[in-house]
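User: quick one
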Amino acid sequence: MDLVLLVFIFVLAAFLGFELISKVPSQLHTPLMSGSNAISGITIVGALIAAGETTGTLSAWLGFAAVVLAAINVVGGYLVTDRMLGMFKKKDASKPKAD
Amino acid sequence: MDTADMLINLAYIAASVIFIFGIKMLGSADTARKGNRLSSLGMLIAVVVTLFNRDIISYQLIIVGLIVGSLIGLIAARLVKMTSMPELVALLNGFGGLSSLLVGWAEYERITHITGTTGSLNENGELITKTIIDLSHFDAFTAATIALAILIGGVTFTGSVYAWGKLSGKLSGRPTLFKGQRALNAVIAALIVVFGVIMTVSAPHVGPGQIYLLILLSLALGILAVMPIGGGDMPVVISLLNSCSGLAASAAGFVIGNNVLIVAGCLVGASGLILTVIMCKAMNRTLGNVLFSGFGSTVQAASG
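Assistant: Done. Structure below.
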């Protein structure tokens, strides 16, 4: 039953994901990709649980490596997306002045 | 489910809702930056409540891992040049994929080392207890999802790193094709499917050798799949690999039975796929054309 429930959640999330993205202006393609890449770093949740195993086991060390990698993905991903979008804002703000 | 578990799961639902709004807001210019910050809040919630998970026994590796990873991420995002940002995204995406692979592998290691005790009476009537490996938690479904997490995570990792190399000019941007490459790709993909099925049906008796072999094949497939695609098409490939890294996280979510991983991963997987198709359309190409035609940069060079 649990398993069916998880698959059910997965299918609904897939439909939601398909519907979320419709008309995206082309200059937002890269930031959107970068922002959703940061979200895919959610695997850090699984990594944390694995790294919290009794210390010294192989699975804890694998979890540790997974935490480091996922944290790089999450922190780097959000910050770099924010920087990209910050560049747009400056451009948008300077445009009305030029007009 | 006790109260703590329930609170954690409620927080996961909140995080999932925040991710949905975040992705939605990222799609329009006025709200994009706010959407990104909102989704980072969702991530913070998910990470903080996970620390209260009662399966976590020791915090040493977690704290060190979080600090080291966050610092590297922070420095990379601060120092990167504006023009090199797409490359950095490719590399970060690869790290996410590798992380999902490791989560799948770690769960395999954990689940095959759960011990239990068994008691038996010897000839003098004394109770003898023995510690044995308890494989009863390792069912066919777990084996299948571990195989999927390793496969998708592995392909995402090497594919993204190769795409990073092409974009940054460290590797030749020209499509590399050798004789029989497509046949080799097909053979490797078929082997992965066969090994995945064997793992699934033979669970719980899956040896570490099978896991290592699956990891190696997946890593090889990632490189071979990106090799024939030209440097000019890398943004589309990275977008597709981003979608894959979402699916890898989702597969890892199935491995450990965690709903926030499944939802957030699947959201990225599905929205990433749509974004990839949109990017292809903007270039007047189809996805199949980008992935299998083997030109890309040569076409751009000829036309421009």
